[in-house]
């Protein structure tokens, strides 16, 4: 019985991707960087905890919603066929109950953010719901995901300062372009399956020109984050970090192979995607070091 409960718990952990935390880090680190920037290097520990928990919960909720909507697609995609709803180890009704429980768990968080931040967070809800549906109607689901994933940047700033500065907007835009770039790399893993089942993505849109467009989005990321640093009057350490990020982006583009699928890219293209954790770490660190 205990083994059965552990296995069941494991399936729900898998459903909300807590067993694969790279997505949590990619959402959380830019948010922490924004908290550091908005607080002049010393973020409130309570606020740091609330936004970290919020990033984990919102990402988990997004994954649950995504898997409910995509269950009939996921079972036909090599990378996603073993997801709990797709392989029927979690029923749709139980997934909905779990989603309601996740939302209830998030309710107390609203009492720890200010009114303007709360209003901003309300705008995020329809975007989270719309993301899995937009893959059916647009080749730009990575854009919608980038907006959702990085909303914490704006929320962190407005909760800390009760206003929204131009520097925060540039940080947000840069993070969106960054996400479109790295998530396009990720999307190439599924391109053959997605074409068969009718799912749209930037990978399908860009086709053989993937490296060129990923390069453009990474260049836009560097420009946006550089402007962010200029507006915040950051020192050379920040811009040194941006230079290191630029070099890493160059490595990603040259190493990326658009012709590899999930079966043969898990040790290359997926590794390149996961290497963006380093980008998040660097931008967070230099957001602090750039102040001094």
TrEMBL record:
Its cofactor is Mg(2+). GO terms for cellular component: plasma membrane. Its EC number is 2.5.1.39. InterPro entries: HB_polyprenyltransferase-like (IPR006370), Prenyltransferase (IPR039653), UbiA_prenyltransferase (IPR000537), UbiA_sf (IPR044878). GO terms for molecular function: 4-hydroxybenzoate polyprenyltransferase activity. Pathway: Cofactor biosynthesis; ubiquinone biosynthesis. This is 4-hydroxybenzoate octaprenyltransferase. The lineage of its organism: Bacteria, Pseudomonadati, Pseudomonadota, Betaproteobacteria, Candidatus Kinetoplastidibacterium. The gene is plqA.
């Amino acid at each position: 019985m205990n083994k059965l409960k552990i296995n069941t718990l494991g399936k729900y952990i898998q459903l909300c991707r807590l067993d694969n935390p790279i997505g949590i880090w990619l959402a959380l680190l830019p948010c922490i960087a924004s908290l550091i920037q908005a607080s002049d290097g010393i973020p409130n520990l309570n606020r740091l905890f609330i936004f970290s928990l919020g990033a984990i919960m919102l990402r988990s909720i997004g994954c649950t919603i995504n898997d409910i909507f995509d269950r009939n697609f996921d079972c036909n995609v090599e990378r996603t066929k073993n997801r709990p709803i797709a392989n029927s180890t979690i029923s749709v009704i139980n997934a909905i109950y779990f989603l309601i429980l996740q939302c209830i768990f998030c309710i107390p968080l609203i009492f720890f953010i200010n009114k303007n931040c709360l209003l901003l967070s309300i705008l995020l809800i329809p975007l989270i719901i719309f993301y899995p549906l937009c893959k059916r109607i647009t080749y730009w689901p990575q854009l919608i995901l980038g907006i959702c994933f990085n909303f914490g940047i704006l929320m962190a700033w407005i909760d800390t300062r009760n206003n929204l500065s131009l520097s925060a907007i540039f940080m947000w835009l840069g993070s969106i372009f960054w996400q479109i770039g790295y998530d396009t790399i990720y999307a190439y893993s599924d391109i053959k399956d997605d074409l068969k089942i009718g799912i749209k993505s930037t990978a399908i849109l860009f086709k053989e020109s993937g490296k060129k467009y990923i390069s453009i989005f990474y260049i836009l990321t560097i420009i946006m984050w550089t402007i962010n640093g200029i507006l915040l009057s950051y020192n050379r350490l920040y811009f040194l970090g941006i230079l290191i990020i630029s070099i890493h982006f160059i490595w990603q583009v040259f190493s990326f192979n658009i012709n590899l699928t999930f079966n043969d890219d898990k040790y290359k293209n997926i590794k390149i995607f996961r290497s963006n954790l380093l980008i998040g770490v660097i931008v967070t660190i230099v957001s602090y070091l750039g102040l001094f």
